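Subject: Interface between my chains keeps coming out wrong

I've been trying for a while to get a sensible model of this assembly. When I model each chain on its own everything looks fine, but I need the whole thing in one frame so I can look at the contacts. Pasting all components below, labels as-is. Any help appreciated, I'm running out of ideas.
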Amino acid sequence: MKKIFLSISIITCGAMILFYGCSKTIEGRTDNAPALLPSNTDVNAGAWKPILLTGPTEFAVAAPIATNTPDYIAQVSEIKSFQANITPEEKDIVRYWSAGAVFRWNEILRELVARHNLPPYQNADGTYPVPNANNPLAYPQFPFANPPYAARAYAYVSAAQYDALVAAWYYKKLYNRPAPYVVDATVNVLIPKSDLPSYPSEDAVVEGVTTEMMKLLFPGDQDFIQLKAEEHKHARLIAGANVRSDLDAGEALGKLVAQKFITRARGDRAGAAVGTPAIWSQMEQDCITRGETPWISQESPKRPPMLPLFGKVKTFLFDSTTMVTQIRPGPPPSTSSKQFQDETAEVKYYADHPTRERMKAIDFWADGVATVTPPGHWNDIAAEDFLKQNFSEVRWARNLALLNMAMMDAAIVCWDGKYAYFNPRPSQVDPSIKTLTGLPNFPSYISGHSTFSAAAATILGHILPSRANDYLGMAEEAKLSRLYGAIHYRSDIEVGFDCGKKVGNFAIQRATTDGAE
Amino acid sequence: MWTINKLLTCLFILVVMLPGVALAQTDMDAIMMNKKQFCQGITYDYSSWNQYWEGTYKRDNANLGTVSTQMLMYMPNYGITNNLNVMASVPYVWTKASAGTLHGLKGFQDMSVVVKWRAYMKKIGQDKLSFFVLGGLTTPLSNYVIDFLPMSIGLGSTNLSARGMVDFRRGNFTVTGSAAYIWRSNVKLDKDSYYDTELHMTDEVQMPNATQYQLRTGYRGKYLIAEALLTNFTTLGGYDITKNNGQLYPNLRMNATMVGANIKYTLKRFTNLAFVGGANYTVAGRNVGQSRAFNVGAFYAFYFGKKGKS
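Reply #2:
Try treating it as a single job with all components included. I did that and got this:
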């Protein structure tokens, strides 16, 4: 009996140690990302080719006050007064933002996408409500940040950041105002020092342009966005990196540049991409007229197809003629062909023979509801690699803009193909096919994941050639995961991949001529 | 030689939570096996739901129809002494949705080992009062997918549980109450980032710990046991499913209150053999399916030592 008591005591003690000894706190890979220390400040980036701006001086930035004026000295004193009362929370904020303005706002954007990537719940009569940008907080909240919406959001934010930073770099070189810690050596510096001129502040430029773009794209989240913006600007002050006039000038420039992109966004036809019941049934009818089996929603109640007119949205990297003549995929195998039957049988095989390895690929690349979407996933992949590259903020923005314009254009090409052909999903033509991931509510051909991933891998391989093969491998896996998941035929993923590569090559074309290489 | 003996005790309750998320509880009754008795059994469990709580909002989903979980479980149980038993379970689970396109999954789920110690027993006239202390470990037997709820077969965490139990018996009437604290390890997704209420740049999911309470009462005779059960499972934290969000992670706030009944019958002529059956119904919940569960099973006892006493 004593022995038993002893062993029970040991077990209990062991359990207690496990209970209290194991910390369950989780840490994200980028929670403690190192402070950005550019290996090259790209001091001549003011000469890089902007995307929408006519040139870096399209929006004027007034000359800064001299660093020996009482006003400037007062601004330095402001920094010092913040630093005298700095709290541990403020130090954390400085550390968080020091990883990079473009990087952190990209992460915040991904979070907004994931938060809003929820398909609306049906009405009582079996129809579905559509989110309303003018009433974003009413259910269903605006936006439904599905993959095309997200691809477009990432592209606009990145492209606007890039243009704003090109302009900022121009004025930095022009005015050449040193950082406060250079002017006054008694200012503490909580981030790595840089010899980049500090007026206008690149961080405030990014903050200004991004908050404006985000308020357009996620109008219901203004409070959240504004909180981040204030935190960001405050971090720059208490870090001793900028005086208030650096920030004010930067933020104002960012907001002006944003207006140019907002104007483009309002006219890019994305607002009409939902279509109308007449358009949806016309697409179905056209498919029947061609002698093919049309796509039918397999959701219950039947949900209208996702953004059928997204293929009409204005592209960034090429014009619509180029898209139709050089990139648009040819038709899929006829639904009555032998090839179609064979490809359906292949899908059925993967549906019924899941291996753990294939399930891992399916889950890893699923990027479905309530996630950052496939474009967001590629932003994460890129961002974590860029963190190791010590890019300047302007090069960060340029590289993400290339990536995200490529993926937005990939979305447009892909959605154009999907609704040009209106091809049914494998589980529609063979109901015995059960899917190993969520079934997207739009036509099958061509695969979105394959198009996005090939476009992303192509441009990323150009930006970081040493990783080119890895990116290609990832894109291959992403592509195959959709066949393994039993939601796409072989033709969908192969042709999607080819189209994505073509889009990626247009991004490379721009990369080689934008003055940054 | 195996000698035929009296009642042998193996009674198992299956608390089926979300689809494919079964908690095999072998540790909530007050019945002990005698020293050197060994018993093993197989049970089959069927649980299904067609309504679930999305947070606190109860709904159905025509894209899932009825989600069912079936489980086949092997359960050995051994009496180290009259007051110290060890029991284990090895379940094989498969899931299915009756509507929509989602494929079911199957595989070995979580093995469990429980040590049960009757720490105190006192007879007061006709009445008998006992206290028990139990410690349990459950851990996945395979690297099954946890990213595909509700079709996943489990939540993937390794759990340690500590349970205290008190049993009162007057004649054949019994009341048993128990309370358990369940420490649940973090789990790893196939994804390398996820959003629950914020974006996490990691594959690791922090699992909330949980408590479980049970009250059971009924008839405990020599050959027949019949009891009514009230069970509550509550996670200490976790997040709510947002509206119409089909992407679920294992760190949900999963609460459930269930009512049920258990029956066990030991053959009079051949007391090595016993049959069990049970049912459970979820009356209230949060982020779980409103499941109806049924189970049946058979147990066979071996006596390695001297004849046990009841």
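Reply #3:
Confirming on my end. The longest helix of chain A spans residues 147-175.
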